[in-house]
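User: Please fill in residues for this 402-position structure.
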């Protein structure tokens, strides 16, 4: 199967050709956006290109390939908007673009090496030196194929090239899989994984919760002041918290996938939590931790890291995984009390998150057996820089209170 990766590379120096080209490209994007909006529904990139190409080239002054890229990018934006409209998450509206990014097509208007990026600008073809981080070295090999990529102006005012690439990875068919792992993502432990052989890993214990609690207290203190400087500080805190959480999610996802590889896992199962925020009710005092919990981000990090290592990822129905006894199958909300799981039917005791992970492992294993018996596959419909420290405890279950 194909694995897609985006590698962020910083330009050492820029010049006025970049903002000049970006401004003009954005003007073209907003013109094309107006055309689609007034059409009242999305249109294909081919159709949009037919309607906008002449104006983009002659009146706005874009290059030929840039004009084609504008049509593809705007068409894709409105297709995404239409999906959100159909799901009741937003209304049909005009998309406005700001001069912060520009799309390039590999081989046509950009080429890249370990040291340099060559792109088409309104001032001609130009080369820019890039900072090649150690982790990015692997993506400059023949096994990776380069795709349409973006030059992006980040909030720090610097320019970064978001290089998109893909490669073919061998993946064992699920019908041939024999060792599975269920992963329960949560707040107390970011990830708890357990294999078919009942080997387990507990990752990120307490770190995410402590991080959230620390920033929540700082946020409340600043909100109580109500000053402009406090507001600016709040925005800065929000960005820093988001970056720290993303860093932690990267570390935990790396740890859990390495554990899966060590254990010879063929398939990782996780819950389909797409609509969890909308459907789950929580107490007011727990609302911040719940709403700011980057569970889908962690799942996506686990997913792409696992696929890169040749491990298949499947999503299962999350219903009652926390209430079901992983030994006897009895379902009751009374089975769980915080981190303690005690089955009211058979008396089985286990750490609650581990019990949930075992139920997920059972479901993905059952899914494999169902496919084998049916002879066909119908998976659930779900959504696609290394960091520091996560607390891991492998091979031993945390003690639960009785």
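Assistant: Residues filled in for all 402 positions:
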């Amino acid at each position: 199967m194909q694995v897609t990766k985006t590698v962020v590379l910083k330009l050492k120096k820029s010049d006025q050709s970049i903002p000049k080209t970006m401004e003009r490209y954005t003007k073209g994007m907003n013109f094309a956006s107006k055309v689609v909006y007034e059409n009242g529904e999305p249109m294909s990139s081919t159709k949009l290109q037919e309607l906008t190409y002449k104006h983009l080239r002659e009146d706005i002054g874009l290059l030929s390939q840039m004009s084609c890229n504008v049509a593809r990018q705007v068409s894709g934006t409105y297709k995404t908007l239409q999906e959100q409209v159909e799901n009741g998450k937003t209304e049909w509206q005009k998309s406005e673009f700001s001069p912060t990014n520009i799309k390039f097509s590999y081989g046509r208007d950009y080429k890249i090496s370990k040291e340099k990026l060559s792109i088409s600008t309104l001032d001609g073809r130009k080369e820019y030196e890039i900072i090649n981080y150690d982790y990015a070295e692997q993506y400059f090999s023949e096994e990776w194929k380069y795709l349409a990529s973006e030059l992006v102006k980040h909030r720090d005012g610097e320019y970064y090239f978001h290089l998109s690439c893909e490669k073919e990875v061998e993946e064992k068919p699920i019908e041939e899989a024999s060792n599975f792992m269920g992963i329960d993502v949560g707040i107390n432990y970011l990830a708890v994984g357990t294999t078919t052989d009942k080997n387990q890993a507990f990752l990120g214990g307490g770190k995410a919760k402590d991080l959230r609690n620390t920033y929540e207290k700082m946020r409340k203190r600043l909100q109580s002041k109500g000053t402009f400087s406090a507001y600016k500080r709040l925005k800065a805190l929000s960005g820093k918290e988001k970056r720290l959480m993303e860093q932690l999610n990267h570390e935990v996802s790396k740890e859990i996938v390495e554990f899966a590889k060590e254990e010879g896992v063929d398939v990782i199962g996780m819950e389909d939590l797409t609509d969890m925020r909308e459907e789950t009710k929580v107490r007011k005092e727990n609302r911040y931790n719940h709403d700011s919990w980057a569970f889908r981000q962690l799942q996506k990090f686990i997913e792409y890291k696992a696929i890169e290592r040749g491990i298949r990822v499947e999503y299962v129905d999350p219903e009652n995984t926390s209430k079901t006894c992983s030994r006897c199958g009895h379902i009751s909300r009374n089975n769980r009390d915080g981190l303690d799981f005690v089955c009211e039917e058979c008396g089985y005791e286990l750490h609650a998150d581990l019990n949930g992970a075992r139920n997920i492992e059972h479901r993905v294993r059952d899914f494999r057996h169902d496919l084998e018996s049916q002879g066909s596959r119908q998976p659930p419909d779900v959504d696609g820089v290394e960091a520091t420290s996560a607390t891991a405890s492998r091979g031993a279950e945390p003690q639960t209170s009785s």
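For context: The chain has two domains: 2-168, 174-394.
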